[in-house]
Amino acid sequence: VRKRLGSSVAPAAALVFLAAAAPACAADPPAAPASDCRGCHADAHPGFERSGHALAATEPWYARSLALSPPALARLCARCHAPDAERPRAGVTCETCHGGPEAAHARRAAREPALDPRLCERCHVVDLPLGKDGAWVHLQDTPAEHALWRERTGDPRGCVDCHASPLAAHFAGVRDPDFLAGAVAVSIVPEDAAAAAGEVRGEVRLENLAGHAFPGGSRLREAWVRLALVAADGRRAEVLAERLSWRGDAADGDTPVDLRLAPGEMRRFPFRAAIPAAFAGARLALECAVDLALVSLDFPDSHPMIPPGEPRVVPVSRARVALVSPSEGR
Ligand code: HEC
Ligand code: HEC
Ligand code: HEC
Ligand code: HEC
Ligand code: HEC
Questions:
Q1: In which residue ranges of the chain is pLDDT below 50?
Q2: Are 47 and 170 in contact (CB under 8 A)?
Q3: How far, in Å, from the CA of 175 to the mean position of ligand 3?
Q4: d(Cα 327, Cα 325) in Å, to the nearest integer?
């Protein structure tokens, strides 16, 4: 095999060869191919170039926060964001996760699992000395949240089952709107009687369907839950507005309160509001929008880490119910 697929074979030629002789290759990968992984594995993780992993060393938020961080920390940041010392701008590379081709292919030959099950933990547990007087802050622990989720829901799915499924083949996250669409289930449960009495009352129910807290990952994410009373002519009145974030109502700014949806949580947001006089007689509905905002409460108006053109708010879920208006009776 090595003779046929070795370093002397150009990637294009290797591809043609693989297409023609796939079954043989599937059973017997080359021991030490030298060309870059993509030459032979064009199908692995479609869209990888656009993923957070591929962009981890170069995306603008990282570049900006690296520039703002104490220079002594740069090497620490690189351990997760630019782990390939030979290609510091390549982000998290094929080799970071799979090892070099020898390692990747030796594991296959030995029928071992393709990857160490603790691989994701290496980087998705984030502690950084960014607190007061350089104190270490526990910033992210998705694996611990995920363990809690499994315990609470009995759902066996691992990180890879959700993030590298055929739909989300490249470890999709907030950069992929289709992937986000399944993250929470939202429903509005109004009390009709209250609508008839000139007010709306009821609750919004939000169920976290992600395999960890929602929003997961970076603290630069927060979810907005907004409920509005909407008249048929398009007029709107806000009924409820909540932020699910890491900062929450932290009084001293140093001990953030985690207001995100916990793993497996179904949270109820009760609402009660008078129907504005101007809406009298109009056909009314309640509309709820759950969005993910890429912001930090440190910078409420202009987030210096969001470059122009970057989408600030990504839709996650929507719900709508029509109300029985007082004039229609019951
Ligand atoms: C010269 C072609 C070639 C190159 C270059 C190459 N591979 Fe492979 N690789 C194969 C073939 C052939 C197989 C076996 C068929 C398959 O599963 O696609 C394979 C299998 C694999 C598998 C599957 C292992 C399993 O358990 O199913 C992984 C992972 C892998 N390669 C990773 C890599 C990585 C990472 C690189 C770059 C560092 C790389 N390969 C470079 C040809 C190549
Ligand atoms: C963040 C870690 C990570 C990175 C980066 C990564 N992979 Fe993977 N790769 C995985 C995981 C996890 C699996 C699935 C293993 C499983 O199903 O058990 C996988 C599966 C594969 C497979 C086997 C696919 C199959 O059909 O079973 C190949 C081949 C592969 N990766 C190649 C690559 C190549 C080429 C790159 C770079 C473009 C790359 N990987 C980057 C983690 C990674
Ligand atoms: C070498 C470190 C490293 C490893 C190993 C790693 N990740 Fe990541 N991952 C990162 C970094 C860094 C980012 C953030 C990149 C950014 O947005 O700057 C990230 C981002 C992500 C994202 C968001 C992607 C996006 O496009 O927004 C997901 C999902 C993810 N990782 C899942 C996984 C899973 C699942 C595994 C295990 C198979 C894994 N990661 C292994 C470092 C790693
Ligand atoms: C049941 C499916 C599921 C499982 C299991 C799961 N996730 Fe997620 N993950 C999601 C969904 C849906 C989102 C998008 C909503 C959000 O941001 O929380 C997400 C978001 C993320 C993000 C933020 C994405 C971004 O672009 O910022 C990261 C990082 C992440 N997951 C990593 C992991 C890791 C690591 C594991 C395993 C320890 C894991 N996930 C397990 C479904 C899952
Ligand atoms: C232990 C691994 C690790 C270290 C060390 C680390 N990060 Fe990260 N970082 C991550 C992961 C994982 C994510 C992605 C979470 C997500 O996608 O939601 C991330 C996300 C980020 C983000 C948000 C990117 C975005 O798209 O929202 C910024 C900014 C960032 N890191 C900057 C830094 C800086 C600066 C340092 C060094 C002071 C650093 N990180 C050190 C793992 C690490």
A1: 1-35, 248, 297-306, 329-330
A2: yes
A3: 12
A4: 6
